Structures are given as C-alpha cells and as structure tokens.
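From the thread on structure requests for the teaching lab: each student submitted one protein with a one-line request. Submission from student K.M.:

"Model DsbA family protein from Sphingomonas sanguinis, tokens only."
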Amino acid sequence: MKSRLLLLALPLALAACGGGNGDANSSAPAASPLPAVPAPAGQDWTQVVNKTAEGYVMGNPNAPIKLVEYGSRLCPACGAFAREGYEPLVNNFVKSGKVSWEFREFLIHGAPDLPPALLGICAGEATFFPVLEQMYQSQQGFNDKLQAMSPDQQKALQTAKPVDVIKALADQMDLINFVKQRGIPEAKARQCLGDMKEIDRLTKQTQDRGADGTVTGTPTFLLNGKPLKGAISWPDVQAALKNAGA
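Reply posted by the TA:
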C-alpha cells in the first residue's frame, strides 16, 4: 500500500517525458539481413499476441529480433512515436516474423497514467494493441481534459482513496466512453479500474525499472535486451531494427 500511495501522491501536472541522450547505438556494425519467418497457417504474425510478465508482445514468440518498449499512454513523446511508427513497425517488421514487439507500461506521471493503463489491459490480448494505438491517436484530448481539472477538484483527490482517485481521473478523461466504443462494457471497465492487484503490479514495475536504471524516460526501448540509447522517434528505432538485420 505504501508504494501505491506514493505514486498517487504525485501532482497531476504531466511531467516531461523522453528517453536518454546518445546516438541510438548507430555505431554498432550492421548485421546481415535475416530471412522472413512464415506465420502459422491461417494467421499472420500481427495476430499473435501473448501476455508476458511485464506487458504484451505481438509477433513471433521466437523472433530473432526482440523489441521492448516501456511507455506511458499520456506521454507526448510516446504518442509521437506511436502515431508515426505503429503502422510501419507492425506491417514492415513484426509481420515478417523477424521482429517481436512488447509494450510494457511505465507510469512516468504517476496517478494520471493508471486509468489508461488499467483500461488498456482490461480485455487482454484481443484488444491490447488496437486500444493502445487508438489511445495514442486520442492522447491530446485525454491530456487536455486532465489539465482542465480545477484546483478544487485536484485538492479533493489528495485525500481520496486510491481507487476513487483512479476512477475520478478516468471519468475526467472520459476514458469509460472511449473503451465502451471499443467493445469493453462499462461494468467491466470500472472493475478493471479497481483492480488493486494490477494497480500494485504496475506501480511496482514502474518503481523497479526506474530504480534499476532500465527506464530513465519514456519511451525507453530495448533491442534484444540492450537499451537503444537516445532512441525516441520512429526513425531512431527503424534504423536500429534494420541495423540488426530486420
């Protein structure tokens, strides 16, 4: 409970986000191009989605190139990456079977990040990546609604119970209606917003990955377990994937 309350005590103003500095490993020697990997009969690799210990992964579970992204659904830099990179990443790299892409939540803004994260994982594998992409398309509207909270509203949240804070923020951003339009019933959505086990897991994941230095900003990318230093934009990541043989 202590760790969760620490996160929820953070201010509602959205913090700056963005990865570290450096050259996105551009100096690494280029690998030879890898062959495409056939998908299971009747499927393509973009339809293969599995839950992992920290997130959800799309694509060939045995892909030779594994891309991991730690992101926040309200982070403008993450949104810019998604709006430019989602389609080419999925269609040009994941679909080939050479690359898998795993998204892991990182609550860089604390409490405000919890409602979209909880609702994004609410329905599991079937809707995870479509809802993720559509949340990024609608991100500016969520952030505008969040910033429109009055000082009195914000003050009231400081003494509210954690679950009540999360539900109030979800209502402020109109996230219930957003997910209802994507097939998640309101009752299920509100149940997901109150899932204390998931709240604790996401909070611990954020604290652990910040403490061990894995994540210094969002988005943070790992390629085959190694950080892509300085990679924030789609061109950064695309160059690294091609350099790895994708």
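TA comment: The chain has a mean pLDDT of 91. Residues 146 and 173 are 6 Å apart (CA to CA).
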